[in-house]
Design a protein that fits this description.
heterodimer; A: about 280 residues; alpha/beta; 6-stranded mixed beta sheet; 4-stranded antiparallel beta sheet; B: about 300 residues; alpha+beta; Alpha-Beta Plaits; 4 strands; binds adenosine-5'-triphosphate; binds magnesium ion
Chain lengths: ~280, ~300
Amino acid sequence: MVELQNVSVTYSSGVDALNNVSLKINDGDFAFVVGSSGAGKSTMIKLLLKEIDATSGVVTVNGYNLNKLKKRKIPEFRRTLGFVFQDFRLIPSMTVYENIAFVLRVIDAPLKYIRKRVPYVISLVGLHAKTNSYPDELSGGEKQRVAIARALVNDPQLIIADEPTGNIDPELSYEIVELLKGINDQGTTILMVTHEHDLVRHFGGRIINITGGEIVFDEVISGTSDDILPEEELAQTMAQVSGISTDTSRIAIPAPPVTSTEDALIDEVIAAITGADQDGGV
Amino acid sequence: MKLSGFKYLANQGIENIWKNKMMAFATFCVLLISLLLVGGSALFYVNMNSMILGLGNQNEVAVYLDPSTTQQRVDEINLELQKMDNIDTVEYISKEEAYKRMQNQISQGKAIFDYIDGYEFMPDGFSVTVIDNDTIEDTTAKIAQISEVQSASSSLQVAEFLRELRRVVSLIAVAVIVALAAVSMIMISNTTKASVFARREEIQIMKYVGATNAFIRTPFFVEGMVTGFFAGAGAFFITWAVYRSVFRILMEQGTLMRAFGVGSIIPFNKIQLWVALAYLVIGALVGALGSVVSTRRHIDV
Ligand SMILES: Nc1ncnc2c1ncn2[C@@H]1O[C@H](COP(=O)(O)OP(=O)(O)OP(=O)(O)O)[C@@H](O)[C@H]1O
Ligand SMILES: [Mg+2]
């Protein structure tokens, strides 16, 4: 569970990255965080990992009050969550197996368990053949799958992903999110920051839009891969989700693999909205 | 931490040396050079000291008694001297003995003795050696207090000079060793910092997956220790080779060099155990600490 109560973050440079943000993500939720560049998304992630502290407000993650968390307790806290970053953050000197096993060694897991659990999660992400490869020998998508395997190997309550698809092919992005969805189905809470509105549209779910350090939108929408919303409602939501982003080129990213006529329709809708910069029907 | 956990971390430390060959080699070289600089200076100092002490075998007090002293009294004084503090050996030198020695010493002027009849004019005496040359004056003064003692004298100026020399040499040696140690610390710290810096991301990732500082540092500790140990071993073998050849060359110079106290150079096999121990222990310790301390800046994330 993640809870922010009136949280503000001001960097020492004077930048107000987050401004009185309140947010609650329940156990088992899957939430997308969207918003333009510099909006404060990564700042929120850093807050949740206790990489930085809130200037004011209360941050609670997995039952730990991060404001009061002692330095000494940080490792214990971090073991309750997994993370996936845009830049993978794999240890280059360790093989795929060792990168993942390391998380279990940290918690002093029995060797027997490590030997069973690590190959299992590697097979979950479909990288069995690459078990003994080094990160340098993997493609971006493969690296990210290793990172995901690492994030879930110790069965965390929460996985935090900051643009996990940022460095990989758009087509592969769907696979990655599919993977995270699957993990979410097993009960793990997932918070994923992304720039790819196509993904958000495709999968739907809870969408949180941060703009200028504030939450301007936080609602559940259906994805196009699920049952479709009434057209009008969808158009409205989409306007709110992506209206803030002026980056229309992103929306022109190739259509997702699971194409449908509805999908094409929504594309049109969004193009119309963003082009006209106002909400309304088709 | 369980034993298996520690074994894993120790293994990681060893593996890291191999994985980071270049940095490990740089650390090894810097440690080796540092150990040689400091160790070499220390050995040079120890030998200088030994040479000066060797020259200072002037720790002898010549004691002459009143010629009228009875033989019984001479024996008593002999015992008295032996019981005094700071006395190493007491050798009785009879009139005859003293006469003979004098003849030997002034062999060139042998003719003089032809004119001197016998040794009756020579006083009985003792040749006393002291344990601590630095307090030879006090001891001499005490001996002089015995009423039958006509004169007690040590070669004070030589002792004084040598003592001063040793003091200066010690001071210089300490200064040089401290300076070299400081320079070495800076070199070592920079090298280990660079080595750790290259792996700062790795450290950060470890922190993100919830590794404790101890968990992250243990491999660095082992790695530094092993590298330092090998540097110590390397320094020992280099020192051994150089020391032995210098020793041999100096010994071959023979008597001339001996006059300068070179005869007092300590043979390597007498000190090799200590040299080896010092190199290995200091190498391992400095290597381990340098590597661990350098992680500090990167570990707080
Ligand atoms: N370490 C820092 N020191 C000072 N200012 C920072 C720091 N990190 C981020 N900022 C500033 O805080 C604001 C929010 O940055 P943040 O990284 O959270 O944006 P973001 O939403 O993740 O953007 P992007 O989508 O480009 O990743 C920006 O104005 C940024 O310049
Ligand atoms: Mg960001």
